[in-house]
Write the structure tokens for this entry.
Amino acid sequence: MQMDDRKWTILQAIIKTYLETGEPVGSRTISKYPDLNLSSATIRNEMSDLEEMGYILQPHTSAGRIPSDAGYRFYVDRMMEDKDREVTEMKELMIQRQDKMELLLKQVVKVLAANTNYATMISGPQYHQTKLKFIQLSVVSPTQILAVIVAEGNVVKNKMINMEHGLDQETVLKLNILLNSSLNGLTIEQINLATISKLKEEAGIHSELVSHVLDTVAEAISQKEDVEIYTSGATNFFRYPELSDSEKASELISAFEEKHPLASLMDGPEPEADEHGIQVYIGQETPVPTMKDCSVVTASYDLGDGMYGRIGIVGPKRMDYDRVVGVLKNLTQQLDELFKKN
């Protein structure tokens, strides 16, 4: 016999139900699953096959079934294959989208500089409120466990955890299932005290290990990658006498060429759902020291799913604020619509 899609769906249902209840699982319980449109008799036949294949077992006569070690192993291996495939597909998709975005953002910032006669900048989209995708614990030595955490945005965090007492493979498998079923798809904000307490309670004597894993999860889904910033129109500073002094202009142009001084402007607060996150910095208010004689207006564009970037316009303090704010609102709205379509 082979593991076809129907058997696999039933095995998943048995394992998930058993993880939740700790009680043997019967065919009537499985028949209520929305993914299955099968009679109890058909499910009993499939469960009988799964038992013969060694993936589930019957602890007592007339009782339901529970997963065997082989069943847990098949479940985790299949889950890891699915997650690896998801990550690979996500990487390919992100590379394609990133190439398109880079070309588009470079064009946007160039057109914006030409239309406003100011210096302009735009950041590539970044993940915020990143969701956890997958956790994998592996035994490295009798006293060491390797925790691999995969989060959205291709963020991978590895941590070696030292233990006084080693774990057997069955315990590691069960901890993998417990952690993934409890945490996958959650953001750092959603992993609250109630979730943590429940996890530790279910982990029992391994609660300290769970604490170490949760620390690594927090690091992985809280970290931010370096912001990619595209700029244009730095020579527009020479259009304004108050900024065209050779020393001032040189400092401003250097900031645009080096780009890293601009990160403090382009990594601002997350926008509200119904706003464009417009911020205006005048003179000394700007976090970039070389721009103390300038005004900076920034706005956020929102791609949804916790991803957003920022657009900025830099000019003299006498800039046309009304026009600049209007242009940014219109542009961010267009970018929001364009990205969400793609």
